[in-house]
Automatic annotation (TrEMBL):
<dbReference type="InterPro" id="IPR013693">
    <property type="entry name" value="SpoIID/LytB_N"/>
</dbReference>
<dbReference type="Pfam" id="PF08486">
    <property type="entry name" value="SpoIID"/>
</dbReference>
<protein>
    <submittedName>
        <fullName>SpoIID/LytB domain-containing protein</fullName>
    </submittedName>
</protein>
<feature type="domain" description="Sporulation stage II protein D amidase enhancer LytB N-terminal">
    <location>
        <begin position="59"/>
        <end position="148"/>
    </location>
</feature>
<feature type="transmembrane region" description="Helical">
    <location>
        <begin position="12"/>
        <end position="31"/>
    </location>
</feature>
<dbReference type="GO" id="GO:0030435">
    <property type="term" value="P:sporulation resulting in formation of a cellular spore"/>
</dbReference>
<keyword id="KW-1133">Transmembrane helix</keyword>
<keyword id="KW-0472">Membrane</keyword>
<keyword id="KW-0812">Transmembrane</keyword>
<dbReference type="InterPro" id="IPR013486">
    <property type="entry name" value="SpoIID/LytB"/>
</dbReference>
């Protein structure tokens, strides 16, 4: 065999070995992409508000998929089922599109986690696995949104209910959202941190609720202070959340009281806690309307798809994925 033939054979063998070594990587890139976190130059970008950015206007441009996945990671646990994450991705996307439809500057302000924040949260050893879960939830729901009567639906969600989700008609006094109705969620009673207990002095409550207490508190009542007899739950909605609460001569909503005291839920009961304190026991986490993430995750564990989960919590709406992103972003 001459020298030229030997060199050609050597080159062929070397090329074969290189292909053999790189073949697994080539297949992986072909199937999954070079890196789920890599930025695709052909993807859409959005302007977002970033308080700590070096840009003078406080804005930054990031990939739409990364932004939506970052919001998802900020709102739902990495341990949730894939179908739960997909359902949540659809809810978030619908909310954002609804806001953008009426926005002139198209600047997004929702809180989100950057890749660095995700890595800090989960650690380098778990970052890639969890990040890819959120990215897949966004990509596998494509551009799906929830519609009602030809418009974007209102898609509230919460961590867990008190066993039932609430009716928007009862909470808001409006028939605009008939698809947000009472839903039985008994498994929510098993949720993490489902029951909370909090103790406040009457003086603390008076200070925290001062924005909506009636003027009587400026006179004799203010000097006398409150006692347990000054607190009365007057009514609850059909899901068991406090609708009206009396404090002295003031009647407020359960949600006002929850917000003032930063309680996890407005499904609560009141008991005396000594001479000058009151104990508040809450059930559930969040406002109680729309999708319960805890029950959604139990449904996903049982094999329900994200479409079935959304249909359960938002009955009467429809899923569509023919909305053009470029019209909004």
């Amino acid at each position: 065999m001459n020298r030229y033939a030997i060199e050609q054979k050597f080159k062929s063998v070397a090329a074969f070995l290189i292909i053999l070594i790189l073949l697994p990587y080539i297949i992986t890139v072909f199937v999954n992409g070079a890196d789920a976190g890599d930025v695709d130059s052909g993807d859409l970008y959005v302007k977002v508000k970033v308080p700590d950015t070096e840009e003078a206007d406080g804005l930054a441009e990031i990939r739409w998929t990364d932004y939506l996945a970052g919001i998802l990671a900020d709102e739902i646990s990495e341990e949730c089922e894939a179908e739960t994450m997909k359902a949540q991705a659809v809810l978030i996307r619908t909310q954002i599109y609804s806001k953008l439809e009426n926005s002139e500057d198209k600047i997004l302000t929702e809180s989100w986690l950057s890749r660095d924040e995700m890595e800090e949260k989960w650690g380098a050893e778990n970052y890639r696995e969890y990040h890819e879960k959120y990215i897949r939830a966004v990509e596998e729901t494509d551009d799906t949104v929830i519609m009602y009567n030809g418009a974007y639906a209102w898609t509230p969600f919460h961590q867990s209910s008190n066993g039932k989700t609430r009716s928007a008609a009862e909470v808001l006094g409006s028939e605009e959202y008939p698809y947000i109705a009472v839903r039985e969620c008994p498994l929510d009673k098993e949720a993490d941190d489902e029951i909370g207990t909090f103790s406040y002095s009457y003086t603390e409550i008076q200070k925290l609720c001062r924005d909506f207490l009636v003027a009587e508190e400026d006179g004799e009542k203010a000097a006398q202070g409150y006692g347990f007899k000054d607190f009365e739950i007057k009514s609850c909605d059909s899901a068991g959340y406090v609708k009206e609460l009396r404090i002295g001569n003031t009647v407020c909503t359960g949600d006002q009281f929850r917000d003032a005291l930063s309680l996890p839920s407005s499904a609560f009961s009141l008991t005396e806690d000594g001479e000058d304190r009151i104990k508040i026991t809450t059930t559930g986490k969040g406002h109680g309307m729309g999708m319960s993430i805890w029950t959604a995750d139990r449904m996903a564990e049982e094999g329900k798809t994200y479409e079935e989960i959304i249909a359960f919590f938002f009955e009467g709406t429809e899923l569509r994925n023919d909305i053009q992103e470029t019209e909004l972003l």
